[in-house]
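Input structure tokens:
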């Protein structure tokens, strides 16, 4: 899978080096904030990849929400761990509500085998003694 003709890892490298560049030339970001920006970028790329391959989209969306909350906290959002937990739990519930209506089993339901009906012995003309 490619994003605008490039591998996802290349985009993540560009974001990482770009954050380092702007920090070196005047943007005042702590190492924690830089790491959080990189984590958010990884979550976005993970979401794009999941959407492209149609697999694990729910997990990717939840990861993106987690990264966004981490980014907000890293930049000064004053939420307690309990508040963060409630927001992430709510996000998981909303995602589950959506996914539940979109998912079908890969295999059909198991149908129980029909009970065996005993057959009467065949009459082959030989009398039993």
């Amino acid at each position: 899978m490619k994003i605008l003709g490039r591998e996802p890892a290349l985009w993540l490298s560009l974001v990482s080096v770009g954050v380092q560049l702007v920090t070196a030339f005047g943007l005042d970001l702590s190492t924690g904030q830089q790491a959080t920006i990189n984590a958010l970028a990884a979550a976005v790329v993970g979401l794009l990849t999941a959407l492209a391959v149609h697999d694990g989209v729910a997990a990717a969306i939840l990861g993106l929400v987690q990264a966004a909350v981490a980014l907000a906290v890293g930049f000064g959002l004053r939420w307690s761990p309990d508040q963060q937990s409630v927001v992430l739990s709510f996000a998981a519930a909303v995602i589950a509500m959506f996914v539940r209506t979109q998912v079908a089993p890969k295999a059909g339901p198991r149908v129980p085998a029909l009970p065996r009906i005993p057959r009467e012995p065949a009459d082959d003309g030989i009398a039993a003694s």
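Helices lie at 8-24, 31-53, 57-74, 81-102. The two ends are 77 Å apart (CA to CA).
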